[in-house]
Amino acid sequence: MTADATGPSIFSRIVAREIPATIVAETERVIAFRDVAPQAPVHVLVVPKSELYRDVVELAAGDPALLAEMVAVAQQVASAESDGQFRLVFNTGANAGQTVFHVHGHVLSGALEESRIGS
Fold first, then answer.
1. For 55, which of 5, 92, 93, 102 could close a Cys bridge (C-beta 3.0–4.6 Å)?
2. What are phi and psi of 56, to 5 degrees?
3. Alpha-carbon gap, residue 74 to 89, rounded angstroms
4. What is the pLDDT of residues 85-113, one digit of tens each?
């Protein structure tokens, strides 16, 4: 969900420090924090601070530089948290497992659980 009649997304509330999170990296436009229900030994969400874009397709069309910054932050997280090798997963749409409609990427490293990576 994005900011509308239902209010700001959970990620916007984390950015505003209304909801606690374990932040592992941050730039002026991007924040990275640990997933509360990790699906791998390293499972970090990389999120733009703006909730202007619902998914990675909208972000790529609207602000490719911000998408590139998200990828750079994902690489920084993987370098700090693991051997620098990682998966970067973007779920796009409810049928693909997206439950928070504020674009975000999942940085995953280590042995992955067999369950689907959601949110």
1. 92
2. -65, -30
3. 10
4. 999 999 999 999 999 999 999 999 986 55
Question: Which residues are tagged catalytic?
Answer: 104
User: DSSP states of 37-74 as a string?
Assistant: S-SSSEEEEEEES----SSHHHHHHH-HHHHHHHHHHH
Half-sphere exposure of 105 (CA within 13 A, CB side): 28
Query: Does residue 105 sit in helix, strand or coil?
Result: strand
Query: Which residue ranges in the chain fall short of pLDDT 50?
Result: 1-5, 115
Domain boundaries, the chain: 10-109
